Amino acid sequence: MSEPSPKDPAPAVDAESEPRPGRTRKPIGWSTIIIAALVAVSAALVWRRDGTSGVLEILTHDLSLFGGILPRVLAGCLLGAFISEILPHEKVSRSLGPKSGLMGLLIGTAFGAILPGGPFTAYPVASALLAVGADFGATIAMVVSWTLIGYGRAVAWEIPIMGTDFTLWRIVISLPLPVLAGALGRFVYVRLYPKPAAKDDET
Prior knowledge:
Layout: H1 30-86, H2 89-96, H3 101-114, H4 119-131, H5 136-148, H6 151-162, H7 164-174, H8 176-192, H9 199-202
């Protein structure tokens, strides 16, 4: 077997296949510390006004609320984890990646408009799309479209309360906003995290 020639250049690493730059999530950060301090101050004020019984009543109510929300959070996180394993990375990167152009923004907008469920579904799905190759622009378009156009809320709440004419005009007016938000997100992301220069360019 012949050995590879040292003159042959090493294959270039695709910048898009590298993980996106980002900070490692810490279990306790400044936001957690600030919220904990606000909780402690609020609890002290309630205890001063209503005594121990007032604090225990709030804790009991919040624990009951947390118990009802926890299964939804768990289901949403599991959904995002499973989606990130099931979706083909190459196809997602080609359809929703940095080189998808306007079509990627339109696909993200359409997907967000038909995505059912609440935030426990939408945000884990958006996180999964980022993990499998979608860029910031297409993901932003999806989230904004889910927020503004989502058919589930329109059918269940908006049409019965506000009427069909209002809902249709509101959706028509909102249609370009996810695409514009996605394009702006993609523009900002490229400037915050520019692609590393190739080795050939440095020499």
